[in-house]
Design brief:
By secondary structure, the chain is mainly beta. 2% of the residues lie in helices and 37% in strands. The chain has one domain (12-189). The strands form 4 sheets. The protein has a 6-stranded antiparallel β-sheet with strand order 3-2-1-7-4-11. Residues 1-195 form the Neprosin PEP catalytic domain. This is Neprosin PEP catalytic domain-containing protein.
Length: 195
């Protein structure tokens, strides 16, 4: 996941992240999620630098770019805990986990994994840039933010590369864009400016 610093206006938030969720029985109290990524939020941190964040619970944002990885069973074999792995072009290494006791419906499995970007803004402020601020069709493809080496780590702790395209959602195609997934990578982002 590429991470860029952006100078945002007061009231704006820009982020790239990964969601692991379970929709539960449809009620808000049964919805579970873990969201991890990078965001820029000047009002929270007092600067325009990207900061790593992790959220457990439910979040809603106004502008969104998502790629959906649907599954019936996403759970780690180590007692049902949700492990975090890292590794760039290498064998994934477990660095920690979320105990299954933190969750209700996600204690057994997740039914959706998403990756992408989101933006938030006060109603009177235009939407902020996402990624590098460049659109995929802007002629600046080398500058557009990307997700690369996309793979899932299964219960067998092996990489499962994502090679095919995924369903996507873009809230406003004039302000943001996402490319199809090809060879385990995609590009997403945009300049924002929507009201």
């Amino acid at each position: 996941m590429d991470v860029y610093g952006l100078e945002l206006k007061r009231g704006q938030l820009s982020s790239s992240s990964i969601w692991v969720t379970h929709s539960g029985d449809g009620s808000k109290s049964s919805y579970n999620s873990v969201i991890a990524g990078w965001h820029i939020h000047q009002e929270r941190y007092g600067d325009y630098r990207p900061h790593h964040f992790i959220l457990i619970g439910r979040q809603s944002y106004s502008e969104i770019i998502l790629l959906n990885l649907n599954s019936d069973q996403w759970q780690d074999k180590k007692g049902g805990d949700w492990w975090v792995y890292y590794g760039f072009n290498s064998v994934p290494t477990g660095v920690g986990y979320y105990p299954k006791s933190l969750f209700t419906s996600m204690a057994e499995n997740a039914n959706q994994i998403k990756l992408g970007a989101f933006a938030g803004t006060d109603r009177t402020v235009p939407s902020p840039p996402i990624g590098s601020g460049a659109l995929r069709n802007s002629g600046q493809l080398g500058r557009v933010a990307s997700f690369t080496n996309l793979c899932l780590v299964g219960q067998d702790e092996r990489n499962n590369p994502i090679t095919g395209d995924l369903p996507s959602v873009v809230s406003n195609n004039q302000c943001y864009s996402v490319t199809p997934v090809a060879h385990g990578a995609c590009f997403c982002g945009g300049p924002g400016g929507c009201m």
